[in-house]
Design a protein that fits this description.
single chain, alpha+beta, Glutaredoxin, 7 helices, 4 strands, 44% helix
Length: 148
């Protein structure tokens, strides 16, 4: 039997030095191909490609999306920015060969839950245009019917 002061000492230690346990989260896919594969049937993916982080079209798209974060979440849409200046060669090949993106300037690609490309644009998409495309998808129609 241990004296009560041992338990009190341990309790005081936990109160003074709180233990932080990191949350268990799934690792972020490192490549575009892995992201698309991991998202299939789970989430929609919006890829934003720009040559640099200061590209005016990218900055405009970021601003447009920043105002509609709850709507993006409601549509199970994840946004991934891809910068040409830091893009691995494998990702560049995947974008051109699998997703049909032309290298160079700004581009937006919407990928549905089925893994297929649903929309491409070379100018920033307005939230209304993006949401109209998503909301017309059969899977999204089912999701909206199931929501209370």
């Amino acid at each position: 039997m241990r004296p009560a002061f041992v338990y009190i000492g341990l309790l005081a230690a936990f109160l003074i030095y709180p233990v932080s346990i990191p949350a268990q989260t799934a690792p972020k896919p490192t490549s575009v191909a892995a992201l698309v594969k991991a998202s299939r049937w789970q989430q929609r993916v919006l890829l934003l490609y720009a040559p640099t982080a200061t590209d005016p079209a990218l900055l405009r798209q970021q601003k447009l999306l920043r105002t509609v974060a709850p709507e993006l979440e409601a549509r199970q849409l994840i946004v991934r920015e891809l910068l040409g200046s830091a893009l691995p060669a494998a990702d560049a090949r995947y974008l051109t060969q699998q997703l049909g993106m032309a290298p160079g300037g700004f581009a937006v690609v919407l990928i549905g839950k089925d893994g297929g490309v649903k929309k491409r644009a070379t100018q920033p998409l307005t939230p209304a245009s993006l949401f109209a495309t998503i909301d017309a998808m059969p899977m999204r129609q089912q999701e909206m019917r199931r929501q209370p």
